[in-house]
Amino acid sequence: MPSLTSMAECILARAKKLDAYPEAQNIAYPSFDDDTLDQLPDELQDERWALANELKQLSRGAAQTTLDCALSAVDRRPCPSRCVSLQPGRHRTLGSTASYGEIAAASGLKEDLCRRFPRLGMGSHFFVEDSDTKRVRHTASSRRLATDRSFSDAVGLEIDELGPASSKLTQVWDKHGQEAGEPNQSAFCMFNETERLIFAFLASQPERTQRFGGAMGFFTKGETWDARQMLASFDWPSIDQPGAQVVDIGGGNGQISQYLAFHTEHVHYVVQDLAHVVSQAPSQLPGHLKVRIEFVQHDFFTPQTMEPPPAAFIMRYILHNWAEKHAIHILQNLVPAMSKGTKLLIYEYVLPDQPVTDLTGRFGFQMDAIMATIFNAQERTAVEYERLLKGADPRYEVEAVCRPEGSTMSIIVVGWTGSDRRPTKDDNASIKPKSGQIKVQTEWQITRN
Ligand SMILES: C[S@@+](CC[C@H](N)C(=O)[O-])C[C@H]1O[C@@H](n2cnc3c(N)ncnc32)[C@H](O)[C@@H]1O
Predict the structure, then answer these.
(1) Ligand 1 touching residue 251 (CB < 6 A)
(2) Where is the O-methyltransferase C-terminal domain (predicted)?
């Protein structure tokens, strides 16, 4: 470990880089009142995250850092979710400052509670109390919660749904085994005492459904999630021929197909999903894309029957929702429609095969824990994706794993080494999986040896 002084020098260099931003924009430096670095370009976000993270932990010491982490749920939970912030719009009666009595009247909570819990949050610069008037006002953190709906949805989802549900993970492993892979036996299901999957379960509770949707919107906005990565990672002109079809498996409302249709000329997109999704989705499609995009009901746990085979299949955010045996099943169901030249493009997090401390890298591990909690599923490393594909069918061949600069997400380009004709059982018997052939490079490209 470097000395504290040399770490501080590193911080100084980073701080200068970050300061250059408000200076160039002619805005104030960040404070607890006003987070002026909030709109930093994505490439600087990691710099910000790294600014003093390690030094902060070292200066607090091992025990206190661990306690801080353990206490964070107690620290934050009652404060934002119960007092003022998680229901923006609900407390418009409050002015720019409020007494504890006014907060109590607006929130319907006892004044005593409205004093104790915000004061706890104030230790983390969440609300601030004027020492003379004892009136409370927002800081940048509490104001953001009160004014940005999708942000408060994201925080609310973590505090009220995912955190409590994840406490059941070890009980799930005890009850169903560590290989537990059934989504209806997940920690989320155990916590909510249901066997219904999260979407079906939440469907009967509009507020929770809305919060889930808002949180997803928050987590997936910004350049690091951009659909452009799908465009950048594959040679689309090579398949953009008249008659070419691309199948968007579990494509939801066709968001990615819409984006790709806009950037290709000829390809016809077939968005497959469950009945209740495809019955609603076409109405959301802009009129000019209706001839290029078609919605078809198809359960990905049944074989594809497309004839002729499509130029490519896309799977975005599909495999990470499923444990290995189910993911293998989904991949095997593509086989009847695979042909030489057919590509499978998988858009997912691809976890590094090592612990990471940078912001975007850590998010993949957090999503891994969330997938485990909600679906008994997981994010995977590049090697695990290769193993999954080969386990489904040895004729799948990972051609590249691309993580464009600054992106959270990766695209795995998969080719098909089988013949043009429909595969038979004999094909399966004669082709053995090749292993240990991929090399992960530091820039997150994977190439074959
Ligand atoms: C996480 S969403 C991803 C949606 C879309 N691919 C995207 O990136 O916006 C998973 C999708 O899988 C669909 N899905 C779930 N089970 C399915 C099944 N058995 N067959 C087809 N689609 C399914 C869901 O309806 C949902 O649209």
Answers:
(1) yes
(2) 221-392
CA 197 to ligand 1 center in whole angstroms: 13
Q: Is pLDDT at 182 greater than 90 in this prediction? A: yes
Cβ count within 10 A of residue 250: 20
Residues near 326 by beta carbon (within 8 Å), at least 6 away in sequence? 181, 183, 301
| Degrees to nearest 5, angle at CA 395 with 393 and 401 | 95
Is residue 300 within 6 Å of ligand 1 at its C-beta? yes
Distances from the Cα of 298 to the Cα of 273, 325, 338, 374, angstroms: 5, 20, 17, 23
Domains along the sequence of the chain with CATH: 1-60 (no CATH), 80-147 (1.10.10.10), 149-219 (no CATH), 224-448 (3.40.50.150)
- Evaluate the CA torsion angle 356, 362, 365, 366 in order and state its sign: positive
Greatest pairwise CA separation for the chain in angstroms = 83
Averaged pLDDT, 237-262: 93
pTM for this one? 0.83
Element (H, E) at 144: helix 140-147
Query: Tokens 């249709």 belong to which residue?
Result: 261
Q: How far is the CA of 274 from the centre of ligand 1 (A)?
A: 8
Q: Is the beta carbon of 183 within 6 A of some atom in ligand 1?
A: no
Ligand 1 pocket check for 255: Cβ under 6 Å: yes
Q: State yes or no: pLDDT of 171 exceeds 60.
A: yes
Atom index in ligand 1 nearest the CA of residue 299 equals: 20
| Closest residue by CA, ligand 1 atom 20 | 299
For the Cβ of 252 lying below 6 angstroms from any atom of ligand 1, the answer is: yes
Give the sign of the dihedral formed by CA 393, CA 394, CA 400, CA 402: positive
> Does ligand 1 have an atom closer than 6 angstroms to the CB of 259?
no
Q: Which residues contact 62 (CB under 8 A, 6 or more apart)?
A: none
ipTM of the predicted structure?
A: 0.99
Residue among 436, 443, 430 at smallest CA distance from 386? 436
